[in-house]
Amino acid sequence: MTAKELDGYLTARRREIEAELDRCVTAGGGRPRRLVQAMRYALLGGGKRLRPVLALASGQAVGGAPARKRALRPGCAIEMIHAYSLAHDDLPAMDDDDMRRGRPSLHAKYDEATAILAGDALLTDAFGVAASTGRTVGAESRLAIVREIAASAGARGMVGGQLKDILAEGKKRVSLSAVQDIHRGKTGALLRASVRVGAIAAGAAKADLRRLTTFGEAFGLVFQITDDVLDEVGDLKSLGKPAGGDRAAGKATYPGVLGMDGARAQARRVADVGYRAIEPFGTRGAALHGLLRHVVERAS
Asked: How far apart are CA 203 and CA 201, in angstroms?
């Protein structure tokens, strides 16, 4: 898949995703108006939609375009959890960021209590979305999807990784294995889950699910390495917030352990693992291949 073809693919998939996300957080049903407004602000304020795109691309790798559509609701559920995590990350008790994607973060736009509750609502409602995939996904697969999302978002995944990240702040020496452990949870767990739920929704065989799990793990590590590199060399326009925030906060990062050149080399090595994992899918895995290549090239 060429860069131009990938752009076209992403535009089409994001259009589908944005429409579905809008349906996921519509007003009504007895929900307070201010809460729904804050949820929509957190969820619909832009973003790459990488996680649901990964879910769709994974479903497509398993069974083509028809299977891809079954991954839409699970992918959107993960995007809701991602949005909640960003809203809570930005809070004064966490990263204390007043900007997100070039605009006021949720607590700066509303207030801390509303940001906390809107995040809570996005997290909780996400499981309802994940479970309501329609008749095209069987009950056993829906249960597996909900279980996958819960594991990736909770203490063994994203939330556990976030706490490890906080505990590592300010330490002068952090090993590469410690950095990898932090980010397998904090960032990698939801990315891995995005790939896996797409495959599960599409009815992947065990061997294909193993291949896609390897790809998802590689993708998560490459994404975090790239994110760490861009935090050092990016700008406000590309990042949506000032660069250098991780270094200023004393966070454990790949450039901090490996240096900039070493971090980029590590990203390429891990990416190769991901590429090899999806080779058996041939052209059906082209979108996954293109997404991984795009992430690697961002840090080049």
From this structure: 5
